[in-house]
User: Fold this.
Amino acid sequence: MTPLIITAAISGAEVTKEQNPAVPYTVEETAREAFSAYEAGAAIIHLHVREDDGTPTQDAGRFKACMDAIRERCPEVIIQPSTGGAVGMTDMERLQSTEVAEPRVNLPHPEMATLDCGTCNFGGDEVFVNSDNTIITFGKTMIQRKVKPEIEVFDKGMIDTALRMAARGIIRSPMHFDFVMGVQIAATARDLAYMVHSIPEDATWTVAGIGRHQIHMAVLAIVMGGHARVGFEDNLYLAKGIPAKSNGELVGKVAHISEELGRPIASPARARDILGLPPLVFA
Assistant:
């Protein structure tokens, strides 16, 4: 079976140190958590960045500082910045994270970044807006910058939107999807299978289970041939009532389960091959 790519979503934009003291805010803390995840088996670091007080930001300078610090400790890892931003940001403000060059590895822009393919409700009055025009802007910008999108989908309709965009040349194949389960669509085996069977045969996919769904969604990904995302952005607990001490603990738990089930863990180099990314070239 194809090795399992583990993505570590190390901080997100919402979780706080009050919820778990290990949540990273500073550049140093971000690099520390990225290294803990990489050392435990993560091939991809999904990256949000914060100011030192924990305020989320899309500032390109802050992304560069964090990416440089991660690359110093994890030279080979795939760094996947988020373009989620915050409510009220313009498209180009959100896309600042894709502007960052990585001279250490001869990259003018990040290898990957997220592309959300629809609007969704995050609870209460919080609405994450991604209009068709936003998706078009993001898709065209990522093609121009040679950034592979990870297509974020929170329900089946977002897959259909991505496929329509692909037909128009806005998103290029082969596509890579991240199914976020437990926000709009239920985190069940039935619904995951429905999502998986709705994407092209040449596409790859990852699943992110939110909160208590994180580990059992990861296990389903292991046995179904997909890939898994874990980390503080989605879940702060190693088990019920037991806060995780690091992102590495969450990655290590999934890596152990995968190896016990006979599926090896993908290195960053193997992950690039699976995802169709070019090999990393160091300066």
User: Anything to note?
Assistant: The radius of gyration is 17 Å. Residues 5 and 273 are 11 Å apart (CA to CA). The chain has a mean pLDDT of 97.
